[in-house]
Amino acid sequence: MENSSRLISIKSSEDILPVYRNTAIGNLLEYHNLDRPFDTYSAAQMLIGMCMDNRKHLHIPDNFAYIIRSGGGNLRYSEFRVSYAISVGNVKAIAIIGHNNCGMVNLMARRELFIKGLVENAGWPREEAEDHFYHFEPMHEIGNEVDFACSEAKRMRLRYPKILVAPMLYRVEDNLLYLIKED
Questions:
Q1: Which terminus of the chain, N or C, has less C-beta within 10 A?
Q2: Count of C-beta atoms within a 10 Å radius of residue 83
Q3: pTM recorded for the entire structure
Q4: Where are the domains of the chain?
Q5: Which helix (H) or strand (E) holds 64?
Q6: How far apart are CA 16 and CA 31, in angstroms?
Q7: Would you state the pLDDT for residue 2?
């Protein structure tokens, strides 16, 4: 469940935390939330890690960002791609964007639906579908969306200390990005 007291609403450029102003992260927030006119880019300015959820769409210019979409915005198994964006793509910023009502929260509650779906939709034997779920569920469960975005941002900062990293939440009700206050 989202912790709304930790969300920073971006309704003007002044709402963007000073550390992110005049950076690719600030530009992302201005493009998406504030309808800033698009600049033209020939190279990516940042990397965005966000959920694969089909309800989310970012309002950003072409060529502005590398985007890695994975369940919950989890970059744990995409680290080579993150390193590529930094080393070869020369990006200097990463946004970790979680979203509310994420399917990667409380996966155990969806266990039977997951197993039944693999059996009925993919033709898997039930035992194989169960093994698959139990093997991968611990790797993909994110817990709380806000806490996970913050922990993933912290992990990225430790791994890539020269890169600016911001945790954010996308609220599906209003399609806006929110910065997250970190502890």
A1: C
A2: 13
A3: 0.90
A4: 4-103+143-180, 106-141
A5: none
A6: 12
A7: 47
